[in-house]
Design brief:
The mean pLDDT is 95. This protein is an alpha/beta fold and 145 residues long. The protein starts with a strand and ends in an 11-residue tail after the last helix. It has helices at residues 15-30, 76-92, 126-134, and strands at residues 3-9, 40-46, 52-53, 56-57, 61-68, 100-107. The chain has a single domain (3-134), classed as Macrophage Migration Inhibitory Factor (2-Layer Sandwich). The radius of gyration is 17 Å and the shape is elongated. The chain contains 3 helices and 6 strands.
Length: 145
């Protein structure tokens, strides 16, 4: 599951802008076969009196924390390409709006993840494709080994 935390100043985004940001993030991962429901985007509106950068109040900064669980990028080249692609996506919703932005990606071990009491299916498995088609978690059986 990619879990996006978008920490932003109060009033930085309209509901429509939030939806567009979340939809673009979801589309990014769906292109690689992830079920759309894996992608969760949370917008955290922070009052100016509580958002500080370098010890000073900031009302023009967005801080994005992305948690990757469903997929991990092990190859350094892939990590760089992914970071750059996500940076371009984020820039359309920050820099292009005149907002300063910083982001980072954490990778949580997949074996520490469950949805509705189910362990998500293995990457690129038939069960994962089923979850993507259904756009929800459904019980599945793994093939015998």
């Amino acid at each position: 599951m990619p879990l996006w935390h978008v920490h932003h100043p109060a009033g930085a985004y309209t509901e429509r802008q939030k939806r567009a940001f979340a939809e673009e993030a979801t589309d990014f991962y769906a292109r690689f076969g992830l079920p759309r429901f894996y992608v969760v985007t949370l917008f955290h509106e922070i009052p100016r009196s509580s958002f500080f950068v370098g010890g000073r109040p900031a009302d023009d900064t967005v801080r994005v924390v992305i948690e990757h669980i469903a997929r991990h990028a092990e190859d350094p080249g892939l990590r760089e390409r992914m970071s750059e692609a996500l940076g371009r996506l984020i820039a359309r919703h920050t820099l292009d709006l005149g907002l300063h932005c910083e982001y980072h990606i954490d990778e949580t071990p997949r074996d520490l993840w469950m949805i509705d009491g189910l362990r998500p299916p293995p990457t690129d498995s038939d069960a994962e494709a089923l979850w993507a088609r259904e756009n929800r978690p459904v019980p599945y059986d793994l093939p015998a080994t």
